[in-house]
Please model this.
Amino acid sequence: MDKPKLAMYWASGCGGCEVALVNLHERLLDVAAAFDFVFCPCLLDTKYQDVEAMADGSIAVTLFNGAIRSSENEELAHLLRRKSQTLIAFGSCAKAGCIPALSNLHSRDDHFHSIYRDNPTLDNPTGIVPQIITERPEGTLTLPVFFERVKTLAQVVTVDYLVPGCPPEPHQIWTIVDHLIQGRPLPPVGSVLGGGRSSVCNECDRIKQDKQIKQLYRNYEVVPEAEICLLEQGLVCMGIATRDGCGALCPKVNMPCTGCYGTPEGVLDQGAKMVSALGSMLDLGDTHGLSEAVIAQRLDEQLDALPDLAGTFYKYSLADSILGGRRANG
Amino acid sequence: MIRQQAATAFEPKILAFLCNWCSYAGADKAGVAQLSCPPQVRTIKVMCSGRIDPQFILEAYRQGADGVVILACHPGDCHYKEGNVHAARRQRILLRLLAQFGIEAARCRMDYVSAGEGEKFARVLTEVVEAVSMLGPLQWNTTD
Amino acid sequence: MAVKNGCNADLDERKAIFFPFAGALPNLPVIDGAACLRSQGGECQLCREACPVEEAVLFAEQEQVIEKTVGAIVVAVGAQLLDCATLPALGERPGADVYTSYAFERLLAQSGPTGGEVVTLRTGKPPAAVAILHCVGSLEGAQCDYCSEVCCQNAFKFNHLIRKKVPGAVIHHLYKELVMPGKDGFALYRAIRDDPASHFIRYPSLDVLRVEEREEGYAVAYTDASGVAGEVTADLVILCPALVPTTDTATLATLLEVQRDRLGFFAEQHNRLAPVQSTVRGIYLAGTCQSPMDLQKAMGQGMAVAGHILSELVLGERIEIEPVTAEVDAERCAGCWVCLQVCPYKAIHRDESGRRACVNALLCAGCGICVAACPAGVMRGNHFTNEAILAEMAGVLA
Model:
């Protein structure tokens, strides 16, 4: 009997998800033994046409990483959806937009302007920017459409499962792959695989006491104490509003969680939850008898320590957040 | 005259969050006093302004609200002691975040309305409708 | 054995076995352990010998800590007077004819050090002139920027009684504000105002007052509210210090986990809607521990508290709680404790494992501050769930 077919595709991503898969180390041999790896641009030379030639539904599982930045990404998403029995949004880019989606805070024109026209390292006197269609004597050249907004995989095709992480942790990947190899029944379609049901604090052993923040710091400003909750020390640790499953790796090495596992179950928007929690945690000292203006000023002084709230709170989940990005006409 | 024209051209949708004890009673007061309140405002009652999750506010914009108003008990008068303090702080932080999304502060107004301030209730809502009318609609449709 | 009698503001002495004050309930004498010679290894048993009832005086009785489980707690620890030792310019010290309102009250009392006679320590004669300094500490500074409410009526009563006991005496009132609301508040003041022996001087703040001891008595130097300097002489000076929270209010508040207000008094849950409830359900406040107040208000509070408790804690009845409460999804709670920090009612605590938050539905008031704050979406607001509110929003925005 033929082995089930496995595909892994990178859309708008960095290749870290592939590295994470390779980090299965010798277990990769088990994967190879169980699956026929048919498509993976990072590792194999399968062409798009080869995938198109496959029968619909002939790929058992596709691990789709990378966000949907361009029409090429979207086209492959549709293609792999058609060819795959199970399509998994693999990693934060495919699941929630991740770093590529931070560009959603700006328009396409803004990007083209700063990438191709107004940048100290550019030499582009005629102001050439990429065109979708360029007529040359030799023929017509086409480029994929650069979308106004980065989207998640689930925003363009139906996704069966979502795996969080930038990148997903190898032990979580193995749990999923092993599950597939053993042929055990999968959870309901739409479920998150390879993550916990709580927040990162669940796996973080730091001592958590009073969630009162006297002063906010950026990472380079302080060396935090090793045993105490980083947030309580004034570092914006996103762990409180981030799904667990990573093993609290970053807090374990004295770095605040940056939120790569995305929204916990039951949360729609990491940024909104951080706003809410921070609003209740910032210690403005004794405010009795002070005017609202003075209290607001104290709050502002604290917040000035965080110059980029959106970038901090939505580093991995902007495309999947409630607003998704900057408004169209603002 | 110009403002009226703008208002007829664009009818903003405003979502107002009211707390059970002060601002909702203030809305009642406005009703009893037969004050005219702008029809563009839809209201949601919560027990306390401290219950207003910023997720609700973002979701309101996503679902087509052009502006959001949070009306709480006056400072020191919160039925739950300090829910209004939490609401005010969250709103202030949210304004910074919203600016990065291109959403103006006037689209997320926080104010205080007591149970007796029917007139203020009507006035604040009228002000918000006017301010948001001037700003125009929030658009989320992308060109792709 | 004789020691200073604190009940009489140390103006006289009492025995080591004594009645705490006239009319104390139960009306029994107690032994002051620190003063009793037996505590210092002595063999004295004069009190037992003097007692006609055998075995009524028990030397072996020890202080006990009694633990009780109760359904309600009433805090009625009162307030205290501002310590005038912190205001040396006003001249209050042992042996001086400068009295706090409390000390002077004892001087007027039948059971007081002089048996109710108003005489000065210096001469043993009734004073020819008395100065009453109102608002000592009140209406001044961030910590005391309130009216102590009882001092005006107290001072007018002193005036009235001094004039009755010492008909020739002249009384000088130095005040920042005169406060006399209510249907009975004005009557006493009117009588005194219309008495030619009473003089009223308004001063702006304590730093313009100085009480100096002179050979013939005391001089109170002042600058009045219009900036004019002056001086009155008196044989006896009465200070009306501000009512301030008792020294151990902070400790008690920490023990009970109830909040205090910006002035340090026990904070009421709501200044109009719930003035006798503390910030924790089941803990009530009565009297000046909550705010300066007169007897009538304190009585009213005490009765209100009794009524609340009696109507809530009915034997055999269940306590009704509001269904609008917060609830933790314990399975998913990560124990970040953001909720613990925001709850104004101390209704959230760590469960037995110490790793999950847990809501006490009895204490929860259902405000939902924690529901909005919970960054992991684990706190549910019953009857005002996220799902319900979002569905309502979708409805009105459609």
